[in-house]
Amino acid sequence: MGPITSRLATMMTPKGWAALAAALLVFAVVLPVLNLAVPPGSPFHLPDFAVSLIGKYLCFAMLALALDLIWGFAGALSLGHGAFFALGGYCMGMYLMRQIGERGVYGHPTLPDFMVFLDWDELPWYWYGFDNFGFAMLMVMLVPGLLALIFGWLAFRSRISGVYFSIITQAMTFALMLAFFRNEMGFGGNNGLTDFKDILGFTIQSQQTRVGLMIASAVALALALLVCLFVVTSKLGRVLVAVRDAENRVRFLGYSVTHAKLLVFVLSAVLAGIAGALYVPQVGIINPGEFSPANSIEVAVWVAVGGRGTLLGPILGAVSVNAAESYFTGFAPDLWLFVLGGLFITVTLFLPQGILGLLRGLRDRLRGTARTPVAETAGHA
Amino acid sequence: MTRKALPGPGSGRAFLALALAGLILLMAGVPGPAAAQDEPVDPAYVQAVQALAEGGFRDKAEAIETLVELGDPRAGRVLAAMFDRRLFVREDAGEDAPALVIGETDAGDQVVIRDAITLEPLGVVHEDTLEAVGINNRLRRTLQEAIGTLQLRDPDPATRIAAAEALAGDRSDENAALLRDVLEAEEDPDVRDAITFALAQIDLGSDDRERRLAAIETLGGSFEPAVRGMLARVVRQNADGSYVEPDEEIRLAAEAALRQTERNLALVEFALNIFQGISLGSVLLLAAMGLAITFGVMGVINMAHGEMLMLGAYTTFVIQEIFRSVAPGLFDAYILVAIPAAFLVAGLVGVALEQGVIRFLYGRPLETLLATWGISLVLQQVVRLIFGAPNREVANPDWMQGGFELLGGAVITYNRLYIIIFALVVLALVALVLRYSRFGLQMRAVTQNRPMAACMGIRSGRVDALTFGLGSGIAGVGGVALSQIGNVSPNLGQSYIVDSFMVVVFGGVGSLWGVLVAAMSLGIINKFLEPYAGAMLGKIIVLVVIILFIQRRPRGLFALKGRAAEA
Amino acid sequence: MPEDAALTLAEEPQGSGAAPAPAPSPTHETLLYIDGVSVSFDGFKALNNLSLVVEAGELRTIIGPNGAGKTTMMDVVTGKTRPDHGAVSFNGDIDLTKLDEVAIARLGIGRKFQRPTVFEKLSVWENLDLAIKDRRGVFHVLFSRLKAEQRRRIEEILEVIGLADRRHEAAGLLSHGQKQWLEIGMLLIQDPQLLLLDEPVAGMTDKETERTAELILDIARQHTVIVVEHDMAFVRDLGAKTTVLHEGSVLAEGTVEAVQNHPRVIEVYLGR
């Protein structure tokens, strides 16, 4: 695809491409070497727990990026992204459950333990095919994507926007959470899916697999970043900016706002699903708690903290907020919710552009160039 | 004033308990000891009672017959005691002391006794001094029948109905005869129904074809769940598909009667579902009403709204604890203090919230959503640190406990009933405040045209704060109601926030009527879906329905039309 | 004009060019035919059995006091408001009342709003880029890039609207008049069959107004244009066939002069 490769070349400055390549090098080569090849005694050794932590943060960053695509760039704050993330996670979880095979507690050749426990005789139809990795990965994208397609079509078609969109996506998340808590749904009810053994033949507990998953997460995040960049620098990206400015005017130009938002929403849901799929093998469990509406709102705060409407902001936000959470829950778990709550309030009141906006403001002041926020289009991020 | 930590019965409470106990005794028609003393005792009765302990079993049976004929209501108690082998002859009794006593309770080898004739309490004696009046199986049956007969002739209809129901449990011909006997003399229609019904139950099990057919016809109109089982047994099939009941006419009649009964039961269930739906709806109404003001009127997305409910519920908990330790006698009145207190606490927190955060975010609804979510996290954590994470229990005042029985075992509980009334009263008050008070007028003026209202000297900032305070305060009051139907926990609000928003969106933003209709219909729909889909799936279906509904009417049921709605 | 004169004149309209509210009928030249359209909001009749015919290639000005239904008429044509009664046909057989805004825009009906609505956060160039005539499908929009010939067209338009040297500035930084021009430029670059301009000179200086009139006359050479306007001087400058709306229906129609001298029009404008 000639025009697309030429688009790719121009959508980022050479410096940007270099930075991306360097970041990939760090996550995909340097950190793995530091963990696996450098002996534990060395000051350069990367401890095992850090690998899992980084892998998790990368998944969260991807989730935040996905949310930013629909919120920051298309102006629709989805509170359903926790659900897309969890759906992707469940699809991966189903693959991992099928991989257990006879090694489960009950030793049933096909049925996962919880189904044997529920006295089920055969696999429900929707579990078919999940023993195949390719099929499972297809579902990881298809399930959240289809849900977003149907839901988004209903919502955007009737011009539900702003807080109404947020509220009904939250209701959707809530409904899904209730559904997945039910044993009859066939997804392990309360306990969810867990006790995974291996992925693609690699033992899930081994450090090599964990490093591999971290690398996969880094690569996926980089690809997601490129996809988002492609969208926001395209004419569609400009249509989306225009939609945030004057939605009706865009319609009178003949652009379908519904289709534009829908495309971005579906794409964003697919990215969230992939993030969830990468997350589950790294934490070893997926349960209905992931659908909790609180999770979805928390993602919004990662994006807000980093700076929405930029592509680096959500990544920065997701990593910094989660690092802070790991830090606080370590020594004062009671305090963390105060910090998180405070973050919600502070960011909305004092930092509407997030950390990235703050940094940009500082830089502009240092350079003495008074750049207006108007010129802040995505491509410059 | 005592300062005991343990809740001891205060004078007021003790009096209440006594009065209540007296009431129950009166209702049950059991003559209390006080009543027994005043009544002159019929010598024939005394003789008959004394005869219970004399002679052989045949003599005793005769004495029992005599007692039944005399029809003294006290006899029931004596015979019941005899049946339980608690009628004793006192071996150490002197000349004047009554020889025949009823043993009441025994602690170890000590027995509390009561005169078998006057029913006066006689204190405590050692069990060795008592000898139980002997009975045999035959006498046992006689006694049972006698007790039933006596109860069936009891002056209190409730006792008579209970007796009829008890007799139906043991399907003997004697019982049938007994019931038929009293039916002729019975005048109270309720008791007649009960007796007829008990008879039909017995007849259904008999061998007489005519009796069975008549019984089926009688049972057909019943509202009792037990009848369904009885009739179902008549029409059931064997494993090979043949019927257990060989007589086709009886079977067909039973099938028809079963259908009728099932219709009746469905009707009862329908009524109960409606009640429970309205009950759930009024809970939703209380939860959503405050939101209808903050979101509907002011357009503020307050994700901490649920926490206002939670604060109201915890305020109730605190007030309850204070009453329990300081004024236990007035415990039943604590709720009257809790309502205004919850309104004030939640209202003040609401005003602080508006002044501290929300007013800086007007016109930025998504930011408001995030900031108020942050506030909700903080409020939950504060409460968790003060009161602890586990659930706390708020006791209902006595007058909210219990309930009354509708037809066919459907019970309407008082707390649910009061909450329905309470929700409607609160709704009416809010509607009155909005429509007729000066503040309501200012509030509407500010929300409709802020600059113009400001020009007319209305301090819009203050009106905003008070409006938000009002919405939050109403949520606090809703919290009082929530505390009466469930436990109180720091995440209480979270379970209501999505529902509340759904109600407001469904009903049409800014319309109190819409909120009422939406809350009630969601409540009822939910309850009707539950039996088919389970509680959770019912909820999911409702959410999906609302989402689809918003497609058709994005502005809810009672939305404004035309240009005004474009804003 | 003395009031009594106006009253007597109202009985007997003078001048053949200004018949009172004629019931128009479409011909094969007709581009837009509004047929007996009524719209009401909460009982208020914004349009009352309005009928109007616009020929292909015509420049038409529409005037009328506040609340006469001018903007509502535009809303109906562009699909923003659905009429309660009546039909709107475009190009002979297309029923506009069945289509939504997007579909109508794609048919080639461009609209400029009363308040200038350009996309303030996008640059002048990007505004024109969005408006340029091209496929509007979402996937095409995602993958497309500007062709050389489209770039030339944007340059051309930039010259026409006099914003060539501000092409990289955010549209939000333009002056009011410049925004109006940019918006007209955006309409031009859509190359629509029918242009609807809602008060294109509102808030402009005299000089800007003059320039805008030139621009519109220029545009009208190749397009069918409907201009809704308050400013009578501007309407005279355009010198086109004029329709007067009042209380949701056509009060008079004809040349500017004829309409200006129409007694009912005078009555409505001066108040009674």
Describe the structure.
The complex is a heterotrimer of chains A (381), B (567) and C (272). Chain A contains 15 helices and four strands. Chain A is mainly alpha-helical. Chain A has one domain. In chain A, strand 2 and strand 3 form a beta hairpin. Chain B is built from 21 helices and seven strands. In chain B, helix 7 packs parallel to helix 9, helix 8 runs antiparallel to helix 9 and helix 10 packs parallel to helix 12. With 567 residues, chain B is mostly helical. In chain B, the strands form two sheets. A five-stranded antiparallel β-sheet of chain B has the order 4-3-2-1-5. Chain B has a two-stranded antiparallel ribbon with strand order 6-7. Chain C has a single domain, classed as Rossmann fold (3-Layer(aba) Sandwich), CATH 3.40.50.300. Chain C is built from eleven helices and eleven strands. Chain C has a seven-stranded mixed β-sheet with strand order 1-11-10-4-9-8-7, sandwiched between helices. In chain C, a hairpin with a 3-residue loop joins strand 5 and strand 6. Chain C starts with a helix and ends with a helix. The N terminus of chain C is likely disordered. Chains in contact: A-B, A-C, B-C. Chains A and B meet through helix 6, helix 7, helix 12 and helix 14 of A and helix 15, helix 20 and helix 21 of B.
Can you give the mean pLDDT of chain C? Answer: 83
Globular, elongated, flat, extended or rod-shaped: what is the shape of chain B? elongated
Let me know the number of strands of chain B.
7
How would you classify the quaternary structure? heterotrimer
Largest sheet of chain B: 5 strands, antiparallel
SSE string of chain C, helix = H, strand = E? HEEEEHEEHEHHHHEHEHEEHH
CATH architecture of chain C: 3-Layer(aba) Sandwich
Number of helices of chain C: 11
Radius of gyration of chain B: 33 Å
How helical, in percent, are the residues of chain B?
A: 55-70%
What is the assigned CATH homologous superfamily of chain C?
A: P-loop containing nucleotide triphosphate hydrolases
